Amino acid sequence: FSDSNLRDRWIGRGRSSLWLPRSPDLNPIDFYFWGHLQTIVHATPMCDIQDLRDRIIAGCETIRCTLDIFECIRESMRRRVTACIQENGEHFQHLL
After folding, report:
1. What is the pLDDT of residue 82?
2. Per the domain annotation, does 83 fall within a domain?
3. Cα distance between residue 26 and residue 18, in whole Å
4. Per-residue confidence (pLDDT) for residue 41, from 0 to 100
5. pLDDT digits (tens, 9 = 90+) for 50-91
6. Which InterPro entries match (predicted)?
7. What's the pLDDT score for residue 55?
8. I need a labelling partner for 44 at 20 to 30 A (CA). Which of 12, 28, 54, 84 fits?
9. Is residue 38 part of a domain?
10. How many domains, in total, are found in the chain?
């Protein structure tokens, strides 16, 4: 759909406009949030699907209420962007 209707006006794979945030290494939701939430949710075995839902909600609230969390994410983002620039946009996980 996007190729035929939007032509060169959208950012996607194979397009002339590169979209760096597609990289999970530079997206805080991917490099931090999901892994941290998973650690919280799966800390102990679950009873049922409702327990899973409750833990996800509680885990999100725990992350939201952690006062220094955004400073940690900001510092991690700074390191990742610096490494990405240093490697000219190539792979940089080995530098982290």
Report:
1. 92
2. yes
3. 14
4. 96
5. 999 999 999 999 998 988 888 888 898 899 889 988 888 777
6. RNaseH_sf
7. 97
8. 28
9. yes
10. 1
Contact 25, 92 (CB under 8 A): yes
Type of residue numbered 63:
I
- Tokens 């998973």 appear where? 38
Give domain status of residue 53, yes or no: yes
C-alpha 62/C-alpha 73 separation (Å) is 15
End-to-end Cα separation, the chain, in angstroms = 38
| 57 backbone dihedrals φ, ψ, rounded to 5° | -65, -45
Q: What is the pTM of this model?
A: 0.58
Residue that is written with structure tokens 């590169």 in the block: 18
- Residue 31 Cα to chain centre, angstroms: 4
